[in-house]
Amino acid sequence: MNYLKEKNGTTQAYRFKNKVLKMKDLASNSLCFVALDSYQFQNLVQVIKMIQYYKSEINKIKSQLINEMIDKKLFDIINSIFRF
Question: Number of H helices and number of E strands within the chain?
Fold first, then answer.
């Protein structure tokens, strides 16, 4: 903004000012300016925890399926499909 004060009225200052204002708007809507006890932050934390939980559950189910299929004759065929 100091640069804009020095170059007030020039085309370059006008273009630069628009970019600065757009960046300021984007920054004010980012999580960097959201308090840790805000609803948005708490909601994001909950969503991240849910994603981590479901990823863990998916991995457990994959392991169970592999362990159950490993004794089956079709396991080699099915496993070869997933290697591609």
Answer: 4, 0
**Residue for token pair 């903004």:** 1
Domain map (residue ranges) of the chain? 1-33, 34-84
- Whether residue 51 contacts residue 38, with contact meaning beta carbons closer than 8 Å, is answered with no
Asked whether the beta carbons of 75 and 69 are under 8 A apart, the reply is yes
The amino acid sitting at 21 is L
Residues with Cβ within 8 Å of 41's Cβ and at least 6 positions away in sequence, in order, are 31, 34, 35
pLDDT for res 10: 65
Average pLDDT over residues 13-29: 77
Contacts of residue 3, Cβ cutoff 8 Å, sequence gap at least 6: 13, 16
pLDDT tens, residue by residue, 72-82: 767 777 777 77
Question: Is 17 within 8 Å of 24 (Cβ atoms)?
Answer: no
